[in-house]
Design a protein that fits this description.
147 residues; alpha/beta; Rossmann fold; 6-stranded parallel beta sheet; 5 helices; 17% strand
Length: 147
């Protein structure tokens, strides 16, 4: 391959794809553009955004339950970053945005290969398409394949 990291994931029992996506993006943090390759971008984006808002509320609850000033500041910065993160659905024949999370179908991604920090693959993809898409990725990229 091209030097980037590939992680194969399964949705944990009792969880959903959107919940796992939101949790993984949260853990990865602000590492640049995130692209989610899916066969249903509108549905997955909507549900993942709801899960993201649940995580924001969890961070805010944690912030309100601590008396430690350093932890309060950390939670405040984290919640602010989470609220600023944009969830977008890629429109045909447009360039990928520079920041946030972009949900896109394979046909569109093949026209506009991603240059991102994290690529989530949530639908079946051929080895040929995978090779083409990953040839554009930087060495610091993480490719997460849901099986």
């Amino acid at each position: 391959m091209h030097g980037f990291y590939i992680e194969k994931r399964k949705v944990p029992v009792g969880s959903t794809l959107s919940a796992d996506l939101a949790q993984h993006i949260f853990i990865r943090g602000a590492k640049g553009l995130v692209v989610v390759l899916t066969d249903k971008p509108h549905d997955i984006a909507s549900i993942t955004k709801k899960q993201w808002h649940e995580l924001i509320r969890k961070v805010e609850r944690e912030r309100s339950s601590t008396l430690n000033a350093v932890r309060i500041a950390e939670f405040t910065v984290q919640a602010a970053w989470m609220r600023r993160l944009r969830f977008t659905i890629h429109k045909p024949n447009s360039e990928l945005s520079d920041s946030g999370i972009v949900f896109v179908e394979l046909s569109e991604l093949l026209r506009t290969p991603p240059i991102c920090s994290t690529l989530y693959i949530t639908c079946p993809i051929t080895n040929e398409d995978m090779s083409f898409l990953t040839s554009w990725l930087p060495k610091t990229c993480v490719v997460v394949i849901y099986t």
